[in-house]
Amino acid sequence: MTASTPVPAGSQPFTTKDYRSNLKPIWCAGCGDFGVATALYRALAAVGRPPHEIALVSGIGCSSRIPGYTNCYGFNSIHGRALPIAQGIKLANPDLLVLVAGGDGDGFSIGGNHVAHAIRRNVDLTYICMDNQIYGLTKGQLSPTSPRGLKTVSSSYGSFEEPVNPLLYCLAYGAGFVAQGAPADMDGLTALIEAGIRYPGFAFINVQSPCVTYGEEKFQLKAQKLRLEKLEALGHDPADFMKATERARAYGEKLYTGIYYRCPSPAATFESMARERRQELQSRAASRSSILDLFQTA
Ligand SMILES: Cc1ncc(C[n+]2csc(CCOP(=O)(O)OP(=O)(O)O)c2C)c(N)n1
Ligand code: SF4
Ligand SMILES: [Mg+2]
User: Ligand 2: distance of its center to the CA of 223 in Å?
Assistant: First the structure.
């Protein structure tokens, strides 16, 4: 069974409780990451893979605590290094469903280079970026997605820098699945995570996950509810790459949620190409004993 194998409706063998650990989250009350965790439990229950067949890898940050709150295999790893670790896990055991999660700083600052290479390598991973436009764990410094002008402990004059646009970034590097969700729409967020898991290749989901302690007012849940516009309601066609890039440009101004782009003909994954190549070479491989004979007769 692969991540994209659908479980027939009504026959889900697991419930959300099966994916939730007994560890009580230490996120601040009201942190958007609670919503991401809940949406993740729901999406995993809908996909129906048992927890022991799932690995969730994160970097370092408030958001990166998420593996500990699930019953799946988890690795709260190194700041900015979740993607290479997750790729290694997936290539070592391609039958595992491998998810990656972390913050905007983790993914698009220190780990930004890994995103580009994970995308072009196209390992079948679902990468959830919990984007709160701030470094939460280290107490509120500028992150790569902080808006220009934001005043923080590290930018008393206000940020002079243009923010990174995670959606455009992933589209530009060729990700086959790019989406954005928000805890203000839990059903939508759950559906996006499920769709990302079922996409056969690298899938990127940016989640606007408010930081209630250091985040700006306009990013909080209440404001999100007012700003949110569903791409589906705009008649957006996820197969239309040009339209996806056009709408992704509005990151920071508009809060579009839904699937920006889903490649209609997904490319072969790295692991499927590796498997094929191995099989091809295996049929031509000399037997172990004949190799030993070569050395013994030399
Ligand atoms: C190599 C390294 N550099 C810096 C840090 C300090 N550090 C820990 S988390 C973090 C940023 C967290 O921001 P983000 O990834 O956006 O996650 P959030 O806490 O906002 O969820 C930084 C700079 C670290 N742990 N390791
Ligand atoms: S500091 Fe911000 S991101 Fe971190 S747990 Fe608190 S609300 Fe969430
Ligand atoms: Mg952050």
Answer: 17
Compute mean pLDDT per 10 residues along the chain, 298 residues long, and list them.
Answer: 52 90 98 98 98 98 98 98 98 97 98 98 98 98 98 96 98 98 98 98 98 94 96 98 98 98 98 94 85 77
Angstrom distances, CA of residue 103 to CA of 51, 93, 120: 23, 25, 21
Q: Is the CB of 214 under 6 A from ligand 2?
A: yes
The answer as to CATH 3.40.50.970 being correct for domain 16-266 is yes
Centre of ligand 2 from the C-alpha of residue 134, in Å: 9
Domain ranges of the chain: 16-266
Question: Is the beta carbon of 213 within 6 A of some atom in ligand 2?
Answer: yes
